[in-house]
Amino acid sequence: MSDDATLDEDAVGTAGDDAPAFEAARYPDGSITYPAHPVGPGGEAPVGTVDLSEHTAEVITWTTSTATPPGVREPNHVAVVEFDVDGEPVRAIGQATTGDIDIGDEVEPVYCEKLRDPEAGIRHPDSQEWDGFRFRPVE
Amino acid sequence: MEDVAIIGASMTQFGQRDAWIRELLAEAGQACLDDASVAADAVEHLYVSNMASGEFEGQTGVPNALAHDLQAVPAYTARIDQTSSSGGAGIYAAWQSVASGASDMTLLVGGEKMTHKTTAEATDVIASLTHPCEYKHGLTLPSFAGLTARLYLDTYDAPRESLGRVAVKNHKNGVDNPHAQFRKEVDLDTVLDSPIVADPLRLYDFCPITDGSAALMFCPVSVAEEHADEYIRVSGIGGATDTHVVHERADPTTMRGVVASSEQAYEMANLSPDDVDVAELHDMFTILEFLQFEDLGFAEKGEGWKAVEEGRTERDGELPINTSGGLKSKGHPLGASGVAQAYEIVQQLRGEAGKRQVEADVGLACNVGGFGNCVTTAILEEVDA
């Protein structure tokens, strides 16, 4: 595990003006996916985006991984969550700020500049983005 | 379309091996040639199932290397990479090559060399199959298993112990497999007290990291009829995918690739789940045995765990599952596993499984890549020539 401070839980903050959007794609049939795909479930290209950081979500399931790959915090709490965007369900996956969560809990996205050390794993550091959103229980 | 037969099968010792990928492939390949009584220069197509020899040891071009090492040149060669289901995909490719009439003698060799890497490094190589939105969060295949296991137990009110019993059963079966990485029984308390890896799953819910290789020889049934007194017929085969992004699946406890690939295989074989006598399932994680058992049609959704609890999947049960010890006990050298699953079914159908032998005329092997991302299902039957 990297000792880079940006990987610590303290490094997260609420999405604000400086944080990028938690961007999901909206398709002509009304469906929304995270991440975006060239074409959606209905076979058509996206027509817009939705910022999931403006919504809360429900925990579908979660785990705490104690055997993590190079550059990943240990333990690594991760969760599958489901947003309700104007009646349209949208699922996402990501790190959780704590292992003290349960199925059905309400969580909110919080921005993290670096989720894992891009230099430590097998994937090329320039091949993808390394920031994103963790999920924090709503008090 | 030609009916396809398997006339040779082999596997190496699985575990921590000194041999590297080329040596492992050649070991199983030569043993399969010997088992089939086929000369290397008779091989027309040679497929190698392998996920990541370049990433693991910096050796690419393994099919051509194997053709030379076996003196099978000028056979046509290709590498089949479908992550953990590379072996099953290789069976599909080998079947296609013969069924289409393109080849009258096809050798498939699956193998992987992994144990020289640390667990963290090997986990990262395997996790490189994930979508960027998963990889950046440190998602690994074991973490997908933890996520799914928690949801399965919660949704279907299954006891945590039922997952442990999968490990206990498969370790017990592995004791009698001379090729298995682990030939040691474990009890339920040991499984449930082992260290947490991806909550609620623990160390004994996971397969090990393994070196090894396995091979199969395919030819038209018409050739097999003249070649051998008995052979194995590929009665049915299917292949399918599910979403790359795992969380986009409507029901995370259903593997649509298993459902679709098995439906194809059952239809082609004109058989149903009730006709299957023995099956090898991809128990990379204990939870996967439940999901496949249900999605192959052996139990209703959410009921698979009861089969294990009631002993129905034991070696002496009504449908023995993973008589080889499964990936859990036998080991999981990625590219070899799907081929080794079929090797076990071939041994069972030939009546050559020794202490592991069960009564079986029809066997099924289900090989899963990613976390259900890509799947193959093969149905094999024994035929007297």
UniProtKB/TrEMBL annotation, chain A:
Biased composition (Acidic residues): 1-11
Source species, domain of life: Archaea
InterPro entries reported for this sequence: NA-bd_OB-fold
Residue numbers spanned by region Disordered: 1-49, 118-139
Protein name: DUF35 domain-containing protein
TrEMBL record, chain B:
Pfam families on file: Thiolase_C_1, Thiolase_N
Residue ranges, compositional bias (Basic and acidic residues): 309-318
GO terms for MF: acyltransferase activity, transferring groups other than amino-acyl groups
Region feature Disordered, mapped onto this chain: 309-330
Presence of the UniProt keyword Cytoplasm in the record: no
Domain Thiolase C-terminal span(s) in chain numbering: 238-381
Domain spans labelled Thiolase N-terminal: 4-220
Transferase among keywords: yes
Signal peptide feature range: none
Top-level lineage group: Archaea
Alphabetically ordered keywords of this record: Isoprene biosynthesis, Transferase
Single biological process term from Gene Ontology: isoprenoid biosynthetic process
InterPro entries in the record: Thiolase, Thiolase-like, Thiolase_C_2, Thiolase_N
Name of this protein: Acetyl-CoA C-acetyltransferase
